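pasting for ref. prot 1 ->
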Amino acid sequence: MNLFNQSLKELVSVIIPVYNTENFLEECLDSVCTQTYDKLEIILVNDGSTDYSEQICNEYAGKDNRIKVINKKNTGISDTRNVGICSSHGNWLVFLDSDDVLRDDAIEVLYRTAKYKGTKMVVGDYQEFDTYVNFENDRNFNVEVLSVEDALEELLIKQPGRWVTTWAKIYDRNLFEEIRFPVGRIYEDTYVMHLLLEKAGRIAKLDYKLYCYRQSSNSIMGVYGFNKIDDLYTAYLLRMDFLREHNYLALYQQQKDLLEWRLHHKYMEANNIEKKEWCKIYRKYYRSNFGTFTWKYRIIGFANCILHKM
């Protein structure tokens, strides 16, 4: 029996937050509309764009009846993704950023893998690009089904960059019954990915580059600021709490050691101006997590806080 017989296909919702990406949006939407898997619901959530993005969304919706456009005031990517989730009807969810591009068979391969392996989540691979998309010609790939603990090890230690992102993956929509992206946070993926892995139970790791991530200085991830660092370390601490509460003690210890090391070495590498900002972050986590620090970093942290009185 052909799995992709029309009567057996399930609806896949592709959720695309849109904010001021007029220069890249058409390329993104073309990559979705021409997917080899065609039973799609394409949800464009315009987060108060001030450029031509809304018009482009409407133009594409007029050409493809699978596209639904939602316009809202600007509230950030977390709330925008949450609106997309609540507005979706698909059995499966795929997330795509509006300046990125999918390989033509990305959704088919993700969906096929989920069905064949009987998993509620599939983690694909990605490649970076700046201007021109050039996917590798090789369409062969390997699939491995991982336990939650093995998947968490991939997320935390082995391949964090690949596993922490919301995109390049497919999710059973039931995984988001009680999980939403935290509104107002910058590293929203870091707050939820471990929760999704835990809920999925078994996760398929797909070694296939099916997503192109655009390196852009205008993207959220391309803008440097200490509010980002504070947000990231808050996410790390919540993730450590999760590991401890769910008895992943070896992973918890590794994350604790890594957090201590990062805090100290980022502080030591900073220039005089940056040191003041780093010390604010160092002091915040030193005070609230003194009991979890090793004695070495307790002493170092105490000295740094005395040195920069704030």
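and prot 2 ->
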Amino acid sequence: MQTLFNFSPFILLLLAVACNTSNNSNPINITVSETSIEKMGLADNSIIMQVEVTNGTNQAATIHWDRIEQQTVLGWTYELNGSTSNSGTLNIPANTSIDVTLTITPNGNIGVGMGSIEFYDPMHQQLTSKTVHYKSTALKEYFRLNLANPSNATSYISNSTPTESYIHHVWVINDNTTPIAVHWKRTEESRIPSNWVLAAKTHEICYTPPILSDVFTSIPPMDSVPFKLIFGHHNQTGYGEATPIFWVNTDSSNSVKSQLFTYKVLP
């Protein structure tokens, strides 16, 4: 009986390999937080996309990834977690998630790029594959402002009149091929005479004076919308100024624009 359990080193090695192979044959449970990401930015700045990749198995795993560009823009460069390669691996502990960051740098080149990143277990690629599709748009600028009447739109002087108000008018223009949502806010109105009342007006809404901000939800491509600021002076003489600001919420620091309006009512 003792000879039955007297395994040779070769047989023990075969048993160890067999056990190890059996463990490695279990597919990795891979999940991703997003399957589609779309972002817009300026051509002079990097566009950042993030997705969370999870290893849902009870042991550490090496997950492979491949990045494929379906629509390329000349001059753009790409990095995935700091790697400029089109493929690589992620070492993820058991039952843990990690952030994966795709950085697209347009290098001043406008355009629309599209691609995908596939995450998978190489031993069970078809069974475990998870794909994240992405689309990035690089613009020269998000929008521009154009005064409706440049000769007097920024500084206007009048006598007291029966109309008791004056309207400043600026166009918010989208020169791009994609719709743009632009936020606006009335600011710097502290130098307004006590009896004056200011109110905003767009192509869709006449706002009451307490409303200080809102959004143009979608300015169509190659189109514009009006923004008007009404100075209701009620025949009170004096000087007032206001500075509405405009911005894209996803990139407020790089997109903000302002327009100063001043108004004086003479006796």
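Residues 1-5, 10-23 have pLDDT under 50 and may be disordered.
The longest helix spans residues 9-24.
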